[in-house]
Each structure stands twice: as C-alpha cells, then as structure tokens.
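Appendix B, example 12.
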Amino acid sequence: MIRKTALALAAALTTLQAMPARAAETEPQRDARMQWWREARFGMFVHWGLYSGLAGNWDGKPYGGGVEWLQSLAGVDTDTYAQTAKPKFAPKPGFAKEWAKLAKDAGCKYVVFTTKHHEGFFLGDSKLTDYDGKDVTGRDLVKEIVDALHAEGLKVGFYHSIIDWHHPDYDFKAAKGLPYPKQAAAKATGPRDHAKYIQFLHGQVDELMSHYGQVDVLWWDYSSTQFDGDAAWGAADLIKEVRAKQPGIIMNNRLYRRPEAGFSGMGTHNVTDRMDPQYGDFVTPENNIPANGLGSVDWETCMTMNGTWGFSDHDDKWKSTEKLIRNLIDIASKGGNYLLNVGPTGEGTIPAESIERMEAMGTWLKKNGEAIYGTKANPFEKVPFDGRVTKKGSTLYLHVFKRPDTGTIVLPVKAAKATLLDGGKALELKTEGDQTTITLPETLADPIATVIKVD
C-alpha cells in the first residue's frame, strides 16, 4: 500500500497550491545565492538505500555496473524486491556521525545523499507511504543524517529520484527512455494515473522541504529527452514550490533533458555551456570532466570512486588517490565542483577503500586547500607545464604534477613573488618584459601535486 492516508496527501497538496510563485530573481541575487556553492568546489555524494544491503547480488548472481539499479538490472517486481531487500537494510547506531566526520575530515564543504533512489524507498518519515525508513527501521534516517551534517558545519543536499519503480501510478509506459524492471512491468496489468504520481512526488518533496530545517541543495534525478519537464513531473510548479519553502536552495537541471536546460542528448557527457536558469542552477556531467569547462555555466562533476554508486561487495575498480586528487584540481581549474561518491553498506558503513581515499584528499587539502576553495578557472589559453592553474584575485596557484626537465616554469605574466604553498618557501623568479621564469626545487614536495603560489 503506497499511501498511509488520502487525507495526508490532500493536506500536502492544499499547502502547495496556496504557495505564492517566486518573484523573478535578479543576477546579483542569484550570484549571492550561488556564492557558497561556487566557492565550495568539493562535496561528498552518498548513495544509500535498500539496494545497499543487497550489495550488488540478486538470487546468488553478482551484477556489475551501478548496483543501485539492481531491481532494474535483475528485472525484479516490486513486492519480491521489497521483501528480499528490507531485512538486509539494518542501519547501525551512529552511522550518520561517521559519514559527517569523514566528509569534514576530507575537506568537503557539502554532502548530497539519496533521500529516495529509483527503487522508490524513502529514507525519511513520510505520511504518504509506508515504503520508508520510519516504517521499515523505526527511524527517520533523513533526520539523523541532516542533524549529523549540521553538527559538523556542512551544507546539506538531498538527492531525490523523480523516477519511482515502487509507486503504482508511476506511468513507466509513458516514461520513454527511462528504465523500469521487466518483471514489474509484466505484472502491472491495471491502468496507471500518472497525475496521481505527480501529486505524490510533489507531496513527498514538500515533506523534505518542510521537516528537516535548512536544505542547501536539491539534486533531481532524472529525465529523458522523450519524458521531462511539466508533462513528466509538473516541473515548473515543483521548482516554485521548493523555492517557496527553501528560498536559498540550489537545484540541478535534471527535471529536464533539453538543450535550453544544458543537455544535448541522453549521454552523461551530453552537457552544454548554455543553460537558461529557469531550468536549474547547475549542469551535471556524470563521471565526466568537460575538456574545457562550461564557460559561464555553473557545473558539477559527480563521480564514482570505483565502478558503482551503490555498495557492491565485488566491485574493486578503485580509482587511485592520485587520480581523485588530480580530478579535483582539474575540475577546479575549469571552474567546476567535484561531487565524489561513497556507497555505504546496508548497515551504513562506508567501505575502507573509500575512507582511505577521502582521508588522503583531506590531508592534501589541509596543506593546499587555499588553491582550491574559492578559486576561479585557469586564465591561460594553455598551461605551460604538466599540471593545472587556479586563480583567486591577483594570485595564481600552479598545481605542478611533474617537474619540467628544465627545472623552470615560464609564465606569460609579470609576477612579484612565488612561494611553495605548503610551508611558504620562497622560490627564485626572474621577470623579463611580460613573462616570469620560476625556478623549481630539485625535488617536488608532493608527487601528486605540488602547489606554487604566485602573486
């Protein structure tokens, strides 16, 4: 049974309909709202739900790829999936505090976690369904996570799937281009009223916006080129309703999948450098770093640490710490944010491999964070060494990956001073005309990325 009471849904809708439309936002107002996000540069993504306890396995068979899609990968119907998955989802006490501490120690400024993935299971306490954390575990897991993040001074982001494989009125036949489990489709013989699902979606989002204090990011997921926007989700009204409750919130663009919303197709790399702000605040390349950034469009690369978003007990395709740190540098040098994923177990334990990598990133950022947080994109047409450049005011930060054979870096600018960011040691420099030559130490201090601060 998807609804606890029809009255609860009616009450939620009445509240939404009474909300005033948000007045047009000026560019300075938008800049002020986006400022913290643009300066943050690094966040932690968390994929966690019923799929986590299944660990990428169904009926004794291991599945590859994004195992948070396990219900669809195995083609399982809703009832069978829920009956099998619920007993394996057993959050341990204090899991949320462990997540928050790790994110803080890693140098993240915000955390986005899955309040509901495509399987339809809601982590919080919803009056619109009993397929939620409160009914299955006796706990409001959204509240536990939000409280822990706020205690660490982190910004809070909600990932919320607009796809729903559990809801009986979600019209998977109309949702062309979007996934749906085969057995669930075969058993769905009765008619579906997608308008009722849209009401449910709006009502549950209203619960998220109303019951957990300040929410800083809302990360929608996702639409197809054949099914998006108002027809699919009542998107324009949904955005207005969210902003009425959370005026400062920042939202991505995945209520839509069209050129004016920053998409050129269905591929995760099909993002563009043009987006009308009415469709969202930032563009979301997935597991992909745009070669040249996206110009003046705000963007965030979300990325797995291995080959999956949700927890798998057999995926060992771990990216190296060097790769992850250099990804962060690369993204910041192109004006974007890095949302790096962890996939906890059904108990809420983050894998040791993820912890090791996040802690290493935190160690690097403790020494070099000045060159990441609050920086702008590389101002040069071409970087004259193996590495990347970020900028803050009149200061350049040279992220050197490999020492040049010449032992020097030549910049096409006049500079007054060059120092190692870690430790502050002054480096020899020589300025001639409009270029500066910096002499590097015989050995770079950090084999992943040594940062030179140039004023």
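The two ends are 64 Å apart (CA to CA). Residues 1-22 have pLDDT under 50 and may be disordered.
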